[in-house]
Amino acid sequence: MRGVAGVLVLVGLVAGVIAVILIGWPRYNVYQRQMAGRAAYEQAVQDRRIRVLEAQAALDAAQLTAQAEIARARGTNEANRIMAESLGGPDNYLRWSYIHMLAETAGEGDRQVIYIPTEAGMPILEAGQRPASAR
To answer: Please, are residues 7 and 14 in contact by the beta-carbon 8 Å criterion?
Structure first.
């Protein structure tokens, strides 16, 4: 009897394990899909937060860049105004700026700077000539 009882217990255990698997497997699949859905949702929320933070960072950077450009323009404007006033007005400042540009670019490549004196905007071409009677 002992052999028959052992076989019955073994068959009962196998039947119990099969019953647990048949009942538990569908529930586990549902649980697994729920967890996968929650994980996907949390990933989507996190991705959205990251995109929002990146957009905010880009906006902040653009605003700070604009403020820096405005400050630079104001500084340049103030420097130009001070320079123009110290040189006697905007016309003299433009002349100084032109001469400064010539000095900076002189000697670059084959470039030479030749200064021609002018009077009333016209070059004075006879400045170095002596009258014929003085010879």
So the answer is: no
Closest CA to 85 of 75, 74, 96: 96
Instruction: State the amino acid at position 112 in one-letter form.
Output: Q
Residue with tokens 């019955």: 8
Encoded tokens for 132: 């014929």
pLDDT in tens, 66-99: 999 999 999 999 998 898 889 888 888 888 888 8
| 102, two tokens | 């010539």
How many residues appear in the chain? 135
For residue 98, give the nearest of 75, 118, 74 by alpha carbon.
118
Listed in sequence order, the DSSP H helices in 87-125 are 90-105
Q: What is the pLDDT of residue 97?
A: 85
pLDDT at 122 exceeding the cut of 80:
no
**pTM for the full predicted model:** 0.47
Rounded CA separation 39/26 (Å): 20
